[in-house]
């Protein structure tokens, strides 16, 4: 069928019109385009997720933690919380995750641990005190090197110093001699020690060097021996704070009364001594002479020799006396080396058990001689306690508590015989050799 030209135009225009309407309708439906909505939803989701991040409470809760010192660690967490709150959805994830450290801060916040951590720090305060105390050095200037009596004293001093958290130094001359001891004392002063315990090798010669140390501001304590007359309250020398040591007159009396008993209250006696001028051995001789005098002539003192603290010299001198006085009944050795030499001479002369010996001081060798009946009594001093006491008094002095320090502290003895030699007390009283 053949359409007219006008009809064909009408149909074409109508089709175009319908097409335009359809397209327009489609465009209207597209404005509610569900495809785009997901985009918005995606954006919303993180925003909602942000809530927990914003809850950032953990970070805020971190505040107490911050109050604790670790605060510094917590602080960044808190700062991070802020961006988390302000965060754009995209950024939120990161801060939110970073909020974890903030949460981690929480335990710190629990402040308890933090405080607990702080506690040790406070406990550390005494440690600091100790550190300060360990700046303190107590010096021992002993009478002579290699003497078990002073070795034991040094041990007591060092142990007490260690227990108190302070330092200890010790030195002494190779001979019992003030000329040798003085530079050692001077060196302690130069070193700047805080307190000095000293066994003066001579009661007169050491006054001046000790006074110099005292004048340098160092508290001085006499240990074992004294200077002047040993009366630090009313005597001619009063600057030492205390005299810590045995009662040596009493010690001499104990020794010689034991010998007098052993020889039956009568006979000849001899004294082996160190040298005049040493307070201890001078007083032991004095005590022995008093004991002999108390026998009203029944016991005769045939002589006193000075060995200069040498056992070899003591042995030689004693041997000469044994030769000269063949009826010698008893000997008093006033210190470790004097007694050791005297005992050796008795053994050498084959007079073990015949000549009775009192042994002042208690090295292991004296205990062997006691068991072998070469000596009959061993008088143990307490040098370990002397060293300890010295530290105690030094610390009191350094604490400004001088009024709590007695001018005299006698340390006592342990008297050792074959009857009690195995007792704990006797065994503990034996001097250390190293
Ligand atoms: O007897 C001790 C001490 O008390 C004296 O002052 C010197 O000698 C000893 O050290 C023993 O050798």
Keywords:
binds alpha-D-tagatopyranose; 14% strand; Rossmann fold; 3 domains; 6-stranded mixed beta sheet; 434 residues; 6-stranded parallel beta sheet; 16 helices; alpha/beta
Give a nutshell description of this structure.
With 434 residues, the chain is an alpha/beta fold. It has 16 helices and twelve strands. Helix 2 packs parallel to helix 5.
Mean pLDDT: 80
Strand order of the largest sheet: 2-1-3-4-5-11
The CATH class of the largest domain turns out to be Alpha Beta
Largest sheet: 6 strands, parallel
Query: Are any ligands bound, and if so which?
Result: alpha-D-tagatopyranose
CATH fold-level topology of the largest domain: Rossmann fold
SSE order in H/E notation? HHHHHHEHEHEHEEHEHEHEHEHEHEEH
Indicate the overall shape. elongated
How far the N terminus sits from the C terminus, by CA atoms, comes to 142 Å
Q: What would you note in describing this structure?
A:
This protein has 434 residues and is an alpha/beta fold. It has 3 domains: 5-96, no CATH class; 133-246 and 384-411, Response regulator (Rossmann fold); 248-382 and 413-429, 3-Layer(aba) Sandwich (Rossmann fold). Helices cover 56% and strands 14% of the residues. It is built from 16 helices and 12 strands. The strands form 2 sheets. It has a 6-stranded parallel sheet, sandwiched between helices. It has a 6-stranded mixed sheet with strand order 7-6-8-9-10-12, sandwiched between helices. Helix 2 (37-55) packs parallel to helix 5 (89-109). The longest helix is centred in the first third of the chain and has 26 residues, at 5-30. The protein is elongated and about 180 Å long. The structure holds alpha-D-tagatopyranose. Residues 143, 147, 149-150, 224-225, 278, 280, 335-337, 360-361, 381 line the site of alpha-D-tagatopyranose.
């Amino acid at each position: 069928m053949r359409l007219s030209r006008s009809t064909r135009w009408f149909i074409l225009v109508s089709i175009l019109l319908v097409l335009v309407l359809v397209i327009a309708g489609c465009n209207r439906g597209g404005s509610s385009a569900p495809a785009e909505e997901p985009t918005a939803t995606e954006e919303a989701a993180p925003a909602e997720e942000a809530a927990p991040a914003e809850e950032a409470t953990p970070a805020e809760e971190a505040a107490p933690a911050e109050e604790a010192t670790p605060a510094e660690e917590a602080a960044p967490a808190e700062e991070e919380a802020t961006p988390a709150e302000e965060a754009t959805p995209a950024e939120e994830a990161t801060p939110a995750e970073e909020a974890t450290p903030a949460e981690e801060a929480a335990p710190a916040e629990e402040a308890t641990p933090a405080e607990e951590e702080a506690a040790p720090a406070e406990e550390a305060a005494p440690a600091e005190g100790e550190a300060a105390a360990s700046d303190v050095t107590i010096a021992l200037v002993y009478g002579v090197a290699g003497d078990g009596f002073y070795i034991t004293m040094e041990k007591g001093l060092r142990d007490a110093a260690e227990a108190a958290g302070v330092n200890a130094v010790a030195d002494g001359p190779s001979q019992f001699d003030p000329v040798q001891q003085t530079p050692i004392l001077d060196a302690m002063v130069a070193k700047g020690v805080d307190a000095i315990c000293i066994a003066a090798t001579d009661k007169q010669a050491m006054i001046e060097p000790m006074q110099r140390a005292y004048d340098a501001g160092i508290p001085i304590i006499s240990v074992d021996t004294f200077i002047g007359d040993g009366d630090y309250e009313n005597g001619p020398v009063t600057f030492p704070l205390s005299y810590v040591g045995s009662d040596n007159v009493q010690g001499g009396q104990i020794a010689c009364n034991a010998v007098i008993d052993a020889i039956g209250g009568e006979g000849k006696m001899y004294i082996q001594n160190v040298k005049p001028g040493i307070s201890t051995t001078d007083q032991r001789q004095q005590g022995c002479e008093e004991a002999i005098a108390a026998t009203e002539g029944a016991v005769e003192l045939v002589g006193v020799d000075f060995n200069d603290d040498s056992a070899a010299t003591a042995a030689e001198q004693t041997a000469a006396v044994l030769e000269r006085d063949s009826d010698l009944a008893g000997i008093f050795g006033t210190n470790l080396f004097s007694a050791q030499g005297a005992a050796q001479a008795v053994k050498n002369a084959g007079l073990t058990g015949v000549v009775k010996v009192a042994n002042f001081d208690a090295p292991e060798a004296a205990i062997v001689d006691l068991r072998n009946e070469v000596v009959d009594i061993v008088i143990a001093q307490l040098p370990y306690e002397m060293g300890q006491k010295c530290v105690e008094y030094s610390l009191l002095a350094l604490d400004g508590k001088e009024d709590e320090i007695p001018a005299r502290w006698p340390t006592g003895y342990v008297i050792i015989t074959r009857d009690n030699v195995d007792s704990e007390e006797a065994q503990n009283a034996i001097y250390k050799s190293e």
